[in-house]
């Protein structure tokens, strides 16, 4: 049995994020409380390492970890859009209800709207983290089923 997970393994929660091989994912808000399994799963799916806030080229997606005490969420979302490719997505990860740093759903909706993003879905992605998929209105329309 291999110590490395099979990239085709659908039990990897990163598959639900919609990432594809070769995509560049910029990670913002990383801290020691972030879910390592999810981070590694994203790297397995994309075949690339996550890039950090110092990355100054275009990213296909942004993974934004945000806790209640991390500052203004709208500002963080606007910052996340700086190097995001046209049609790219932001996955906002916030602590689940009852966990330290939980962000209320209405705060996420308000911040996303103010930043010019549309909330398209939410999912439990890790033991302590909830993911909210945010897209520009153009990307949100093309991604609808």
UniProtKB/TrEMBL annotation:
> What InterPro entries does this protein map onto?
DUF3052
Taxonomically, which superkingdom? Bacteria
Output this protein's name: DUF3052 domain-containing protein
Q: Which organism is it from?
A: Kitasatospora kazusensis
Q: What is the lineage of its organism?
A: Bacteria, Bacillati, Actinomycetota, Actinomycetes, Kitasatosporales
């Amino acid at each position: 049995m291999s110590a490395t997970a099979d990239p085709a393994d659908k039990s990897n929660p990163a598959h639900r994020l919609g990432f594809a091989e070769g995509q560049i994912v910029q990670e913002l808000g990383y801290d020691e409380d972030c879910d390592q399994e999810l981070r590694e799963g994203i790297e397995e799916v994309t075949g690339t390492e996550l890039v950090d806030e110092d990355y100054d080229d275009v990213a296909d997606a942004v993974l934004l970890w945000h806790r209640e005490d991390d500052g203004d969420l709208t500002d963080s979302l606007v910052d996340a859009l700086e190097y995001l490719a046209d049609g790219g997505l932001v996955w906002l990860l916030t602590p689940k209800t009852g966990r330290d740093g939980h962000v209320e759903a209405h705060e996420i909706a308000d911040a996303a709207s103010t930043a010019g993003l549309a909330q398209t879905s939410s999912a439990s992605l890790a033991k302590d983290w909830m993911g909210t998929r945010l897209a520009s209105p153009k990307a949100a329309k093309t991604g609808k089923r």
